Task: structure prediction
Amino acid sequence: MLLSSLYTHLLDLIESHTLTVLPTDDQPLSEYVAHRHELHRDLVDALDRRDRDEALRLIHEHNTGLPTARDPAEQH
Result:
């Protein structure tokens, strides 16, 4: 619950200071925003589970826009 509250407040702060959101490639904006939302949700879930490897993978994807391979044994 604390992590969710912190995330929500940080998101509000970021949104209030963000002038524009633009995709990094030819992807439509709505798809880009949906993907970023999913990425943030997955990161919060990984942090909640204390899954260090998954959190680091998601942070890398968040910061670079480049997904890294998931463990084939891991399915969401």
